[in-house]
Amino acid sequence: MDEVAFSRLLDHLVLLFDKIIISQGGSRRDCELFLRNIIPVMHLFNPIELQDYFVEKIDALITFACDYVRSAAFCFLAKLLSI
Hints:
By secondary structure, the chain is mainly α. Helix content is 81%, strand content 0%.
């Protein structure tokens, strides 16, 4: 039951990330806060789904974003690899 609920929540978080932060060129602060706030609760989600949704986006952020967002993206990726 939890897996279904958290899978739906993850779908909504991905839509939020895509629409507000990535596609509309959201502020670096919004992107950084999103990544830093999701890190403590990543263990609640299915790691395979997290990888499917976020790895390419995180790679792009590491490559093209400012230092603040890049740092948050590295923290996100490190936590993802440790789950």
